From TrEMBL:
InterPro entries: DUF7978 (IPR058284). Keywords: Membrane, Transmembrane, Transmembrane helix. This is DUF7978 domain-containing protein. Coiled coil: none annotated. Residues 3-185 form the DUF7978 domain. The chain crosses the membrane at residues 12-33, 100-117, 129-152, 164-186. Pfam families: DUF7978 (PF25933). The keyword Lipid metabolism does not apply. It comes from Halopenitus persicus.
Length: 189
């Protein structure tokens, strides 16, 4: 038994860097992969917004909604005809090609968890899983900020509660732990 506490085993600074990097890289990959398709989808909506004197929806905002949809965070539109509406564009897609977007945050966060286990020199799956959870330190802040930044006209945005709880906390903790456990197994050999 050592006097080492759980927080002593967490690679907090590497977790902050790797978690934030995973969030930014996930958004970038989503933008590069789907940016032109999002732009095309927004053209009709933006014509109507322009006719009504509103600002057009920026492509980077639409891609942000899609990135949050990849975390199972729905996009909410308040004040539309009939009240509040919410949707997940990935789940609603007809052709299924968008379904692969669900893998973007999963693969990145599992990889970050494995990396953090290596940084923490974890030698067991348990130690690796603990180290992998440090990804939340870096993933949560941009997940919260992004949910606010990707707001259009004060009424269309990722659902803030699930953006924080699901995308910001659950995804990096669970997937980071899974990747960390795998990294811990590799470190124990």
């Amino acid at each position: 038994m050592s006097d080492e506490t759980l927080t002593d085993r967490l690679p907090l600074v590497p977790g902050a860097v790797a978690g934030a990097g995973a969030y930014l890289l996930g958004y970038l990959l989503t933008y590069l992969w789907q940016g032109s398709a999002v732009e095309e989808q927004l053209q009709g909506i933006n014509v109507i917004a322009d006719l009504l004197g509103g600002e057009p929806i920026a492509v980077w905002q639409g891609v942000g909604w899609l990135f949050y949809n990849a975390h199972f965070v729905r996009t909410r539109a308040e004040g539309v005809i009939g009240g509040t509406r919410s949707w997940n564009a990935i789940a609603a897609a007809d052709d299924g090609t968008l379904t692969l977007l669900y893998l973007v945050p999963v693969l990145l966060l599992v990889a970050v968890g494995a990396l953090l286990a290596r940084v923490a020199t974890a030698e067991t799956p348990g130690d690796g899983a603990i180290a992998g959870t440090a990804a939340v330190v870096g993933y949560l802040p941009p997940a919260v900020v992004g949910a606010v930044v990707f707001t259009y006209d004060g009424s269309v945005a990722p659902d803030l509660v699930t953006a924080v709880l699901l995308a910001g906390i659950a995804y990096p903790v669970v997937l980071g732990a899974i990747g960390g456990a795998v990294g811990g197994v590799a470190g124990g050999k």
